[in-house]
Amino acid sequence: MADTGTPQRPARTGKQQPKETSGLLMTVIRTLSASESNEQRDREKGRLEREYRKSDKRLDELITKNDQALKDVMQIFGDVSGRLAESRRRIRTIKDNLAACKRLLHCKRDELKERWLEGVEHKHVMLLLEQIDEVRDVGERVGGYVGKKHYLHATQLLVTSLARLRTDLKMVEALKDVNTDLHARKERLHDTLIEELHKHLYQRWTREVLALRRQGSGRDSATTLTRAGSDRTSLGTGKSDKARKNLLEMMTSPNRMRGGEGAVVEEDVSGGDPEADSQHFMAIIVECLALLGKLPDAVETIKRRMQKELGIIIHRTTQQITEYHPTAPPDDPPTAVPAYLKADSREAKLLQELLQVVFEQLRLVVAAHQSVLVSLRTSVDKHAIEVHLYSMPDVWSKVQAALQVMLSEYLDLSQLGTTSQQQAPAAFTEAATDLSSFFTKKRPPRSKAYSLFKFEGSYHAMTMNTYLMEQAAGQGGIDALDLGLSVTDGNAASSGGGSGGGSSKNRGERTLVCPASPHNITAIFNPLQVFVREIEEALGCSPGTHCTLYVFITDYIKDAFLAQLHIETAARLEQATKALDQWHTCKDLNQLRALKVSRPLLQSSLSVWETLEELRWLLCALPLYADHFVSMMCNTLMNYRETCQAAYRGITQPDSEDKRIISATWAKDEDISRFLRDLPNWRALQAGVTSASIEGDENPEEVGERNRKEAEILTGNLGDQLIPPHEILADPAQLRTLAHLQESLEWFGGRIMGLAEALPVKSTSSGLVVSGEVPPVSDASVQTLTSLAKDFEELAHTCLLVLHLEVRLHCFFYLLPVARGGVFVSGLDSQEPDPQVLKLIKDLATIDDALTNTLQPRKCKYIFEGLGPLIANILMTSVVYIRRINENGIKKMCGNIFSIQQQLTNITMTRELALDQARQYYEMLYHTPDEILNGIMNQGKQFSELEYINALQLLNRSSPSLTQDALQISLQRLSEILGDVGVTV
Q1: pTM tops 0.85, yes or no
Q2: 156 located within any domain
Q3: CA-to-CA distance for 927 and 268, rounded, in angstroms?
Q4: Which residue among 122, 600, 647, 919 is least enclosed by CB atoms within 10 Å?
């Protein structure tokens, strides 16, 4: 064992050698144990010796190398051993001393206990004296904290001091006055905290909004606040800049306040503004109320005063807007805009500004309540207080109630009950297709019995104002408004001036920015809808369900506004029809110039169009009722169409059944109407092309040929018999009336068509309507408007065709008797026109004078263009009715033609070539039949074969020397000549 243990010593300091040496030694031992021969043992022994010497050599080397380290280790080991021995010795000494002390304490136990009790009693007395000194100064310290609005430190100090007075210092008689004073301070602090909380809930930020709104002059809230926030002079101090920043954050991200839930409420007394962060300040106030044990009372106070405070905000805003926008001077000219068309009126702008400012303040109030609720929940959980908190739906409910009170004042709901019972309510709830019965002209309303009392009217929209006022009064609201202003809004009284609504005696004379009227809803409906959507999003209303404010607004519109609108529209339509009965025209040049028209229009058309424009404006003002307003447009137009048709029939259909106006009958005839509308002059007229443009493209022969075709058709229908006087419109005033009707209805139909084309059609993918944009309506309504526009245009076209035909009928009326009853074989050489021709000339001048100032020039051109070919055709075909004619008769007929041609030239400002041809035709009668036939052979054909035949027959009747056989020879020769000419051509 000695041999095996020796080589292991150097192995402890090596890295890998101990494992190798030990392994070799064990191998040698196993080999020696297992060897059977001495020779093998000697061999193993020699191997073991060699390894031993090698190990011994390595050990010497390692000892030589680590000699100093070994010395150091041995020295340290010696020091440690000495210190351990010294420590054992000291411990034994301490144990001996402790045993001695134990024996001594056991001997002095009673004396030491007495001394310890005396020390404890002395320490407690000193502590009580220190507490008494501190409590005596608590009042001043609390007052100092309250003065600096460090309410959390004041509350903590006050609560701690009162707790001491209830426990440790309870029996100190000298502190009773201090206790009473601190309790009084606690109550005053509670009141102060409540007022500070309401100030930050309802006044601080709302006053900022009023100041910034006044600076921004009613611009968009975010833009106004941003601009005012960058303006250092708006409120004057860096404190105001922080306030604006906090205000913007509360408006743009109201959910930011939720990050404070569960956070530790701390108060900085380093000298900064404690109210700079309003949310943190309100959290401190809530924590103070919780520490005071007044949190349940504070919650009840908040709920009780909420309605009153919201009313104060609206009242204060109304006063400031009224002061900032003084009443218009009495000498301002009154506007002619109807009561409900107030988009650009001063009253509408003031009401919209009031509503926007109130909305901004209410949003901040709601955000502040949300922050307070977070703080309340945190304090309730932290202090384990049992209290029934209000919720955000409760806040929104009060907001809606306050808005309903305000709207009740501006919409004048007090008149709703009487108005709704004076008119038949069923007339306004029927379908759109049944509304025409409401506008029926000259139909006396059927008397209908109404019940004296209706239960559904109690506390409904008509009495909502009274109901809300009673509710607010029950909560200490309206009657206590002055008290609220004096306590929580001290500056409101000064800012409100002497305006009404501040005291209970003037409660019925509340200050309003504009007069109360049911039509005020048109100015505020869209802003209200935006705010309603905010409320419904905040309340999480499901699709199809709405908040109470939405129900209030929609019920009011259905029950009051639409009913009154129907009554007013019916009155305006009746007034318009009366104007149509009297054929009043608008003579206001400025109004006509604004409408871009050059001819007078019927006042009735303008009145009805103004009504339609107002209804179209209502489409944008009340987009939810767009289809209803379009239905009102359609029914108004239907009634006006019937009135216009009745007026047209009153002119063109006399009372006697056996009489008829030929022009109106022909204008209604489909074939004649289609023929006239297929002519190029009608198509050019509808395309807006003037006759001058047509003449620039067509030569006079083409124009004459086109008009000659129309003349031949009319002559074929009217040339056989005389026209009775009662079958024409002989009165120029009637023609002027038709012209006014045509001009007005054409303009009116075009405007309606433009209105129908501008209306967007509803689609399943249509979204919310942006304020100011035209809302989509049903396709059926647009089609109905388009159809009505075409009806008015069609009636206008009919009037123009009647005028076109009537002028031509006058030519037949005056010229047909000339040939039938005239004497053309007179011995007098006179070129004076025939009396009937003079009447025609005068009639044409009168008609031209009546239509020139009534119709546009292109329409007058259409009416008078083509009269030359027609008159020429009438005169040339009239030769068959002339019995005999001589040179004097020919001169007389040529004089007639010249006079008519001169008058037509003055009217149309063009030379009538057709009348030149008619005069040449009659001048041909100067020649004998043979000369006429030779002229055809030499000069060619100038007239039709029938016209030559009629001329030859007239010459035969006029010359006694010519026999019937000679006439037949002339006609046979004419046929041969015209046949040869036709072949040659």
Answers
A1: no
A2: yes
A3: 129
A4: 122
